[in-house]
Amino acid sequence: MQYQITHKPSFSLLKLRLGPGQSIKSEAGAMVYMSSKMQVETKMGSGFLSALARKFLGGESFFFNTYTAPSDGGEIGLAPDLPGDIIELDLNGKSVMVQSGSYLASDSGIQVVSKFGGLRSLFGGEGLFLLEVSGSGKAFLSSYGAIVPIQVQGNYTVDTGHIVAFENSLQFSVGRAGGNWKSTLLGGEGLVANFSGNGTLWIQSRVPSGFITWLTRLLPV
């Protein structure tokens, strides 16, 4: 499989060239274009309960689409719903935890399973379930805005809405941004995720809620 990510970081498009019989799995609705004779199969992912969790608690689609190239290969273009960045992760047997809406696609050697994130993720505003993306192969994640990798060594604090993904070697807890609830509620920062450990954290430079708030101010009453 060959790939190219163009128009970064604002309007990224993932272009894939698949060899004969090769497959790519994507979030439903991500396909922009594909060559003729490409086979498309729609599945619920990692079991019925996991699919339900993705749909109703993880903010993801109920289904995955799997695209398989014909005997002479094929091309396909994928993009997320929101304008932003796309990155490629070569997992090599590792696993990462991905926030709602940031999973875009992966090759056939990758598993995507909903994981209970605990009440801490619910209170953080990011959904009760996270997606565990693991296996051997490439995974592609998307964002709203640019994606910035951060190497965490010790402790690091991030606004919950800016999290894209993190390695499962990191632990996190949700807390107040300020020293008291007045600072949290009136300071505009809300709740934050406090990460600890050693590993990579990926964040997005913008959050959809910020754009929605800005747009709402422009609407007539």
TrEMBL record:
It comes from the Bacteria. InterPro entries: AIM24 (IPR002838), AIM24_sf (IPR036983), Trp_RNA-bd_attenuator-like_dom (IPR016031). Gene3D superfamilies: Mitochondrial biogenesis AIM24. This is TIGR00266 family protein. It comes from Leptospira semungkisensis. The lineage of its organism: Bacteria, Pseudomonadati, Spirochaetota, Spirochaetia, Leptospirales.
